[in-house]
Design brief:
About 40% of the residues lie in helices and about 15% in strands.
């Protein structure tokens, strides 16, 4: 257990307060001890005022840890990252921003979403700047402390009061943290030397550091994995739209055949069965549709319906005779199925 973990644990379980003096080159506040660097990161400290984004390799196209200068950039990057994760995971909850907090934002919470506390709450043992990961989102939100592995349960209102999504944090919020994975520093040219120093000294590995001056958006759009997910999502939606169109058209044609007494040739052309066989399959062998009733689809039997399949109602369509009243009451559900 290092010094920071000792202080953290004592603060979490007692009323003891600490006043610590740290590295004078950093921003004001408490600095968490980190291992000594064996590579060139320490060589950057004395020339931080000369460093430019091009002085770093910037070879990591996409990072899940980001540092920013302003809260506006923090919120922008968090929004992009939440939308990215939304493509991967189906189950999530949306929480509206806390209108009394200008630094709050609308969030999408999923299992695995990183979060950070932004104020203390003793009764729940929440410590400002402690980091957590979402473990459950229903019925209550369960957060696991990344350091102690202890869990807490909170409701949606408490989340927006005490926590923020933590794909990106300001450098002020992250000082004292050690980062042991690739990360990106945004708004570099807006930072003073002490903030730059604090940002790059979060790690002992220079190769982890990516530096940008103008945000993350172009990095995310270059991420091929992200592009593939967007394309897959679009294909799935296009398939649903096409399937819905075919269902609506199939039901319209079948109702026309049943009610208008069309010829067998017309029925064979559009359903591959004669009209009488179609009526028997629908459970109306006498051909009389009761007043107030109509043919309606329930759901397709296949998610991949070709033009030939479209005609084969017996193999690919689940149809039944239902009242218009029942149809109106459950129409939304039926159309979305």
């Amino acid at each position: 257990m290092n010094a920071y973990e000792v202080f953290y644990y004592v603060k979490l379980h007692s009323d003891v307060k600490f006043v610590l003096v740290g590295d004078y080159k950093q921003l004001g506040g408490i600095e968490r001890p980190r291992p000594k660097s064996d590579n060139t990161v320490s060589e950057l400290f004395d020339k931080v005022h000369q460093l430019k984004p091009s002085d770093f390799d910037n070879k990591h196209i996409f990072t899940r840890v980001n540092l920013s200068y302003t809260n506006e950039k923090r919120k922008q990057i968090n929004e992009i990252m939440m939308q990215r994760d939304k493509l991967k995971k189906k189950k999530m909850i949306k929480l509206e921003a806390n209108k009394d907090d200008p630094n709050s934002q609308q969030v999408l919470l999923m299992v695995g979403t990183p979060v950070i506390a932004h104020r203390n709450y003793k009764s729940l043992k929440i410590v400002n700047c402690a980091t957590y990961s979402v473990r459950k989102i229903e019925p209550l939100i369960v957060l696991e402390d990344t350091l102690t592995k202890e869990t807490i349960e909170i409701n949606e209102e408490q989340f927006q009061l005490y926590f923020r999504v933590n794909y990106c944090s300001t450098v002020h919020k992250m000082q004292g943290d050690s980062i042991q994975e690739p990360f990106t520093i945004h708004e570099w040219n807006r930072m003073e030397d002490d903030m730059r120093y604090t940002a790059i000294s979060r790690t002992t590995e220079k190769e982890y550091i990516n530096v940008l001056d103008d945000g993350i958006k172009h990095k995310v759009t270059k991420d091929t994995d992200f592009d593939r997910m967007k394309q897959k999502k679009k294909r799935e939606q296009d398939l649903k739209d096409e399937l819905k169109r075919k269902r609506i058209e199939a039901v319209r044609v079948i109702n026309y055949i049943v009610r208008k007494g069309c010829s067998d040739d017309f029925s064979l052309k559009h359903t591959i069965v004669k009209r009488q066989e179609l009526l028997e399959r629908l459970g109306i062998p006498d051909g009389v549709v009761p007043r107030g009733y109509e043919i309606h689809h329930i759901k397709p039997r296949s998610q991949h319906v070709t033009d030939d399949d479209f005609k084969n109602i017996n193999a690919h369509w689940n149809l039944r005779l239902i009242s218009r009243k029942e149809n109106n009451e459950s129409g939304q559900k039926l159309q979305s199925s």
